[in-house]
From TrEMBL:
This is Cell division protein FtsA. Residues 6-194 form the SHS2 domain. Residues 394-415 are annotated as: Disordered. It comes from Jejuia spongiicola. It is a peripheral membrane protein. GO terms for biological process: cell division. The gene is ftsA. InterPro entries: ATPase_NBD (IPR043129), Cell_div_FtsA (IPR020823), FtsA/MreB (IPR050696), SHS2_FtsA (IPR003494). Belongs to the FtsA/MreB family. Residues 406-415 have a biased composition (Basic and acidic residues).
Length: 435
């Protein structure tokens, strides 16, 4: 596979999507091919049947390969599911030499220390996301690299998940004949696809309503502050319609998509849908008012649970206010009048998030549907990962060249260092005399 290509694989509860994308000359992402298959063997974001999941992955990948006319080797996979939880943690390191400036290595040391946290049995840390740093007690530092200080501490947002669930997904991907190039948390992937940098700065809650789970990611000052996975999604709404109207699942899903609304007030009592009966039975008549009442009850429950999480983050404190409000994405966000209902329950500005933030202008409308937010985000993540690898490779080559030419280069390096030393001495002298 060529360098500026990446493949995102979104293993969801209702569908599995494989998406091939590449960066064009304007830095936007072109989607070359997309494949999707019905997800069998995944329940609430967790694999519960390996064989079926492998088949579904292969089907989606083949479809994408045909569309893009190329072979897929490696993929970036998203993980979500009801086993994901997050916690806040602060940690510090004492630096051996406070005369040196803080560099990447110090931050890596601090992050590695967080990775040693003791978790519940079977749990593992997936992401460690630094919030803000403190250097020698000076708080609210966003970027400590280049500063002087003896004690470096930070608040972290730590995302934790079940090792076995993550391994199962890895196993499915490998058994489907693919390389696992990267794993990303799905709420983060969706956020990359649908949120603008301004929204992340101002404070925003992204709610990704999938089939089996609803993912939440909260950003403020450009940093992720809170993540949560709520074990309900579009499927429970379909389930409720199926039970409430005594119809089969396929019909319930169609009813939800075609006539469903989250707001019961707007349907008249006399609006009726007729559903063919099974094998010669009488057709069933369902009033749209009843349908939207069923949907409304369940959606309110999901939104209220999400709102509890937003409050847990501290949205009601002045300093933590989410000025950009809520962005809804995922397949479930296409439900009619959902935006109004969410605004009504939370009192926060709401919009539907389409993953067109980074896509090339001529992308199909299909691809810019909220359904594909996570897949687009995973493609973006894969492309970013490749760029990082490229930079590292270049640095490595430069270092190797420098090692070859060390004898020739020794002098200038010494001179440069001594110039820096002189500058440092001048600054020190100035400070001493200023006292």
């Amino acid at each position: 596979m060529e360098h500026n290509l990446a493949v995102g694989l979104d293993i969801g509860t209702t569908k599995i999507v494989a998406m091939i994308g590449r960066k064009n000359e304007y830095g936007k992402v072109e989607i070359l091919g997309i494949g999707k298959s019905k997800s069998l063997g995944v329940h609430r974001g967790v694999v519960n049947n390996i064989t079926q999941t492998i088949q579904s992955i292969q089907q989606a990948v083949q479809e994408a390969e045909v569309a893009a006319d190329m072979k897929i080797m490696g993929v970036t996979v998203g993980i979500a599911g009801q086993h994901i939880r997050s916690l806040q943690h602060s940690d510090y390191i004492t630096r051996p030499n406070s005369e040196h400036v803080i560099d990447e290595e110090d931050i890596d040391r601090l992050i590695n220390q967080v990775h040693k946290l003791v978790m519940l049995p079977g749990e593992e840390i997936i992401h460690v996301l630094p919030q803000e740093y403190k250097v020698d007690g000076q708080a609210e530092i966003k970027e400590p690299i280049g500063m002087y200080g003896g004690r470096l501490e930070a608040n972290f947002h730590v995302v934790v998940g079940q090792v076995s669930s993550i391994r199962n997904i890895g196993r499915c991907v490998q058994s489907a004949g693919l390389n696992l190039e990267g794993i990303t948390l799905e709420p983060l992937a969706s956020a990359n696809a649908v949120l603008s940098q301004e929204e992340k700065e101002a404070g925003v809650a992204l709610i990704d309503i999938g089939g089996g789970t609803t993912d939440l990611a909260i950003f403020r000052d450009g940093i992720i502050r809170h993540t949560a996975v709520i074990p309900f999604g579009g499927n429970v709404i379909t389930e409720d319609i199926k039970e409430g109207c005594s119809i089969i699942e396929k019909q319930a899903e169609l009813l939800k998509i075609k006539f469903g609304s989250a707001w019961p007030g707007e349907n008249k009592d006399n609006e009726i849908v007729s559903i063919p009966g099974l094998r010669g039975r009488e057709p069933k008549e369902i009033t749209l008012k009843n349908l939207s009442k069923i949907i409304h009850a369940r959606v309110v429950e999901i939104v209220e649970q999400v709102y509890v999480e937003i409050k847990n983050y501290g949205h009601e404190e002045q300093k933590k206010k989410l000025i950009a409000g809520i962005v809804l994405t995922g397949g479930g966000s296409q439900l009619k009048h959902l935006k109004q209902l969410v605004e009504y329950i939370t009192g926060m500005d709401t919009r539907i998030g389409y993953p067109n933030e980074h896509l090339a202008g001529d992308s199909d409308d299909d691809i810019t549907s909220p359904l594909y937010a996570t897949a687009v985000g995973l493609v973006l993540d894969g492309l970013k990962r490749q760029e990082r690898k490229k930079v590292e490779q270049q640095q490595k080559e430069i270092e190797e060249e420098e090692n070859h030419e060390e004898e020739i280069k020794e002098k200038p390096v010494k001179e440069r260092r001594s110039f820096l030393d002189k500058l440092t001495e001048r600054v020190k002298d100035f400070l001493d005399n200023a006292e």
